[in-house]
Amino acid sequence: MEQTIQIETGKNIRFENVASYRARMKQSEIDHRLGQFVAVLKGSGAKRNGPMISATFAIDHDSEEQVLDMEFMFPVDRPLDLPEPYGFKPVFQLVNAVHTRHAGDPEGLDRVFTELVNYIHRNKMIQVSTGYTLSIQPPAGAEPCFDVYIVVNESIL
After folding, report:
1. At 50, phi and psi to the nearest 5?
2. Is the Cα torsion angle 39, 65, 129, 103 positive or negative in sign?
3. pLDDT value of position 92
4. Predicted confidence band at 157 (pLDDT cuts at 50, 70, 90)?
5. Cα torsion for 33, 15, 54, 73, to the nearest 10°?
6. Alpha helices (H) in the chain, listed in sequence order
7. Positive or negative CA dihedral for 59, 63, 66, 69?
8. Is there a cis peptide before residue 90, judged by omega within 30 degrees of 0?
9. b/e string for 69-108 if b means 16 or more Cβ within 10 A?
10. What residues have CB less than 8 Å from 133, skipping those under 6 apart?
């Protein structure tokens, strides 16, 4: 039996000093590219100051392997001047988002996103962002945990 997710509305999140990396990559390249980004951050001497944030902006199904337009972000302890293709955002903020938490296998995130989008449509909300996933550090031995946010327009039309 599938668990029902708890959905909250009107949620806001804000992080300062956010290192970012956005690129198109094959599904098989994601772990390697993310590892390179983490290595650059470690080499900079910056310390992580929050969860990893990820977003998928597009998925291309035309090739033999899926190609994803993805962004990975890490809040860090100070401003950074990073080499290309990496970037830096003084502030990353989501306002008026629909939110839920998923504990368990990351494969279940597809279902979570589908449920959030269905909730948005059922409640006649207007989606204005892609979904953002925050990888929450669980206690030792606990299941992986993810907070998922999608920003919606506050207007009522």
Report:
1. 160, -175
2. negative
3. 97
4. low
5. -10
6. 30-44, 109-122
7. negative
8. no
9. ebbbbbbbeeebebeeebeeeeebebeebbbbebeeeeeb
10. 53, 54, 55, 109, 146, 147, 148
Going along the chain from its start, the domains and CATH numbers come out as 1-157 (3.20.80.10)
pLDDT of residue 1: 35
Question: What pLDDT sits at residue 149?
Answer: 97
Instruction: Kindly report the pTM of this predicted structure.
Output: 0.89
25-55 as b/e: b if 16+ CB within 10 A = beeebeeebbeebbebbeebebeeebbbbbb
- Going by C-beta distance under 8 Å and a sequence separation of 6 or more, which residues neighbour residue 99? 7, 8, 9, 11, 147, 148, 149
In Å, the largest CA–CA distance within the chain is 49
